[in-house]
Amino acid sequence: MSTIVATENLSKRYGSRTVVENLNLRIPEGAIYGFLGPNGSGKSTTMKMLLSLIQPSTGQVEVMGKPMTRSTRRAQLARIGSLIESPPGYGHLTGRENMRIIQRLLGLNDQQIDFAIHTVRMQGQMDKKVRNYSLGMKQRLGIAMALARQPKLLILDEPTNGLDPAGIEEMRALLRRLADGGVTVMVSSHLLGEIDKTATMLGILSGGRMIFQGTRDQLFSAATPDVLIHCSDPKRAHGLLARSLDSRLENNVQVRVPGIGEQATAGVITSLVNEGIGIYEVRRDEQTLEQVFMGLTEGGGL
């Protein structure tokens, strides 16, 4: 699978403060790339550097096989759509009038405008003034503006922010339709559950550094879930294990040992058996994306 976005040691500093550090981003063509990280981790700054809205301090950005520079940005941006921060649009104009402005600015034809409007399913709302739109409608209009040029890459910063459950579901379906239609989508979100349901690739930032990049399966295999031990004497087992491990007694019926691998688990079981404790069951605790994320970012919230 070819790569549509790549960065090499991309960094951004403001004086002595480093916001993004040595970022090596890889977005495969045709992917829905979920971009995750706590507040202040550098997600928005990274997206703005990809769009050449902010110049990097060091490193470089390559989009569709070509470097993104001041001299190439005009040609590159013609193939990129984006929705960064608040949705665009003039509130005193209708949705259709806003789309006509985009059409004139970009030199687009009627078919391109109609395609974008139908893609976001806004054809019945275009004669209303934008100030009367719901937040979800404004988000969809903003995406229609980004899609009008029929980009190969779409970059969306928090597109579900403030949406109700129905709006979130509509946005999720839209992203899937876009990917099925050949558009690569990069989307940041604080709604981990939605990213889990939508993204085909994940990138996780913490403190400006990339701490994980890969598929969901790779993320879960990289994380080490807790071990739960059901045994004949949980209190005594906890007391023995707590001497050397972060063992926890849960409801006086099982012992939880966080983040140990297979060999360490075997050693724990052997030591308990040698102490005369009967082992009834040993299993890994299933994890959600939120739990894996919290573990990787050391408890940092989105």
Descriptive notes:
The protein has helices spanning 43-50, 73-77, 95-106, 110-119, 135-147, 165-180, 192-198, 216-222, 234-241, 262-274, 289-296; strands at residues 3-14, 17-23, 26-28, 32-36, 58-63, 66-67, 80-83, 153-157, 184-188, 201-206, 209-214, 227-231, 248-250, 254-257, 279-284. It has 302 residues and is an alpha/beta fold. The chain folds into two domains: 3-221, Rossmann fold, CATH 3.40.50; 226-285. The strands form three sheets. Strands 7-8-9-4-10-11 form a six-stranded mixed sheet, with helices on both faces. Strands 1, 2, 3, 5 and 6 form a five-stranded antiparallel sheet that branches. A four-stranded antiparallel sheet has the order 13-14-12-15, with helices on one face. The mean pLDDT is 89.
Low-pLDDT ranges = none
Q: What kind of sheet is the major sheet? A: 6 strands, mixed
| Shape category | elongated
* Rg result: 24 Å
Sequence of secondary-structure elements? EEEEHEEHEHHHEHEHEEHEHEEHEH
Distance between the termini: 30 Å
- Counting structural domains, the number is 2
Strand percentage lies at 25-35%
Q: Tell me how many strands there are.
A: 15
Averaged pLDDT: 89
CATH topology of the largest domain: Rossmann fold
Oligomer: single chain
The share of residues in helices is 25-40%
Corresponding CATH architecture of the largest domain? 3-Layer(aba) Sandwich
The CATH H-level superfamily of the largest domain is P-loop containing nucleotide triphosphate hydrolases
Q: Can you identify the CATH class of the largest domain?
A: Alpha Beta
Spatial ordering of strands, largest sheet: 7-8-9-4-10-11
